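Field: COMPLEX_INPUT
Field: COMPONENT_COUNT = two
Field: RESIDUE_TOTAL = 528
Field: MODE = joint
Values follow.
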Amino acid sequence: MISFFNVSKVYPNGVKALQGVSLQIEQGEFVFIVGPSGAGKSTLIKLIFREEMPTKGQIYINGRSILRMRRRDVPHLRRQIGMVFQDFRLLPDRTIYENVAFAMQVVGARRSEIKKRVPEVLKMVGLANRMDNYPPQLSGGEQQRTAIARALVNKPSTIIADEPTGNLDINTSWDIMECFQKINDDGTTVIIATHAKEIVDSMRQRVIALENGKIVRDENRGVYENALT
Amino acid sequence: MYMKMLLLRQAYYIFQEVGRSLKRNSLLNFAAVGTTAISLFVLGVGMLLVINTNEIAKTIESDIEIMVYMRHDLAEEDAIALEPVIGRISGVKETTFIPRDEALKSLVKRLGDELDESVGEQNPLPDAIKVEISDPHEVNTIAAEIEDLPGVESVRYGGQDFVKKLFSLTNWVRIIGLLLITLLGLCGIFLIATTTRLTIFARRREINIMKYVGATDWFVRWPFLLEGIILGFFGALLAVGVLYFSYGALIAKIQETITFLPLVNSTLVLLRIFQGLLAVGVVMGAVGSTISVRRYLRV
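Field: COMPLEX_OUTPUT
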């Protein structure tokens, strides 16, 4: 569960990225975060991930305060959260299998565990037959699915994606969203910051809309734009 | 137990990464190892030089003695009577009376029979007293005091000036060596830091991903620290190797020609110097990589 209480973030250069944001995301929810560029979506994600600290307010992730967290506990917080980016962030000189296995090596997983888990996750995102290829040999959609597999491999409670379909065409975007839906069906919380109006509109999930650092709308089974605005 | 297993598995990964990056920056690695080796070699040469000059100075100092020659017209009893007087001077350790007959005998023994014939029945040598002193630095004052005693013709002592020169030489070796070592040491550290920085730069994507999948700070840092330590260690190893063989060869050469020179050749002393150099190399590597890790690795 993720809770924000009256959270504000002002960057050192004076930009007020978030102002008095309060929200609650339960375990197992599927949430879209929408809004124009510069509305504060990325800052919201960075705060959940504790890449940035709030200027004001309190944030709890799975019952633990981000503010009171010691520095050495931060990696353990991050292991509960899988991150997916617009630019995939894969290592081009390692195979698909190695890219996913990397995330498990970093947290010190057993080799036998890695050998078992990596093919399992790759199968789940539909890349079982691409394990030995390198990222540049894959299409954008396949690369993004590799990144999703990597985010998922350590069994996080939450997957956060920042513009995951920003670099993909519409058909591929749908594949990716289906992939997220499947992950969510297994009980993982999914939070997606996106501009993909069509997808948000047709998936009818919870939508949190940000504008100028404030939540202007938060509705279940929502759409990208409110008819009134 | 679990922690141990975890560390082992992570250690495997870390060593793999170190191997990868050592292969990647081979030219810079070579420069870093080379500079470290040169600086440690100079350090080693300096240490050996200082140790050896100290040893030589000590040997010469322990040999310092004052020869006191009596006036020729002084009777032997009066000369013998002077011995306890000299013995009471502070700083004098031991005195030996050498009667002129004995001095002549030993001279004849050294130079052979020709002397005996040319000198005939006359003995040109005076009675003498050999004085050993406890502190070589006081030799001047003690000698002057003895010279003032009635019946003393002259005093003679050697080695003092040489020891003085040797010590001032050792001091210069120390100062110049220290400057050189500091300069070269800083170069070595700088090059190791640069190597580490390049490795960090080459691996910035991985580091970024590591952060996102929840790697601990130390897990990210270790490969870089280890790389620096390995570079420093190999630099020191190179220095020790060159030093060992060249010093051995030098010692053999010197002792062939100047047999009496007391050079340090004990394995224990050399081993301690080499251990010290290796330790310094490792520390240099750790310091160099830490500088870069702290400056360029925002985890």
